Amino acid sequence: MNSFLRLRTSALLRIVAVASAGIGLSACEQNTYVPPPPPKVDVAAPVQRNVTRFIDATGNTAAVKSVDLVARVQGFLQSIDYQDGTGVKQGQTLFTIEPETYRLKLEQAQAAEAGAQASLKQAEADYKRQVDLVQRQAVSQATLDTSTANRDNAQANLQQAQANTQIAKVNYGYTTVSAPFDGVVTAHLVSVGELVGVSSPTQLASIVALNPIWVNFNVNERDVLRVREEARRRGMTVDQLRQLPIEVALQTDTGFPHKGHLDYVSPTLNQSTGTISVRGILDNPDRVLLPGFFVRVRVPFQQEENALLVPDVALGADQAGRYLLVVNGENVVEQRKVTTGQLEGGLRVIETGLKPDDKVVVGGLLRAIPGQKVDPQTKKIESDTAAK
Questions:
Q1: Which of 54, 155, 214, 247 could lock 62 by a disulfide, CB 3.0 to 4.6 Å apart?
Q2: Which of 56, 54, 58 is nearest to 294 (CA)?
Q3: pTM for the structure as a whole
Q4: What is the pLDDT of residues 3-24, one digit of tens each?
């Protein structure tokens, strides 16, 4: 009986051991590692289209004409004949400085001139008589010499009187300060009744011309060489080059709504900055642009056919420069170094490093890791495409 129990117990233990081994093997088969599928990313071929190449710069607006209005004669300010900050026309009276005193001085000078003319007339008549008498030997030569001297002295006195009259007329004109050109006059710096022009010219206000207006900016040496090369290719003269159109935008503008043309290009390069000073001129009838504004400027200089463009947000940057993520024929991500150009409606021009048939990662950029496989999903680039 005891032997039977031992045999039965031994059989049960073997069955349990076999069952445990089967369970262990089944668990090992269920825990086998299965790699995840490649991540999905959006890819697209670069857009090809004709683009106009621009030189981009930043600059400042400046007045074409800006003049300080000063008192050039001494006197009390009698009137201010304009409203601060208003537009005025050329020749419009702006200030009046005690004109009565200078009017009287002008009349005094004119009277002195009239007296000098009368003296000269008398001296000339006496000279003619003495000449006639000398010819008849009725008077001595000394008497004629005296008459000649009197005539010449009268002529000199008349010239002096005429000069004094002109000076008095100029000073009298200075009592009225007028606008030298069309523009806007600043707030007055003196008050009515104040003595001005005492020891030196006193500034009364300033006048600024706002239409047209200048835009000053600098162009780097590389862009200058590009423009000169394009000008040589197109056979442009220096005068034609100075007439290149420019486009200007304020900080709040969308696009470049203000149009003009180049007005001046410096003949020398600034060696310390490696740039050339350039100036454009724009019509400004509505006074949207004011002197001193910070503006963005671009100058179109070349038309390029079939340029390659990709969404600007698809570009990355590291210490080596800008790059794109490209999926190769084996669906492996590559990091491609590129040279970028200007921005065109949300798309960035790619100068070098990209081919027309490349598949550029435009969506799922965080899932695209260089050297790893991905599942590319072909998309079409639109002008407002943004990488996700």
A1: 214
A2: 58
A3: 0.68
A4: 544 545 555 556 555 555 555 5
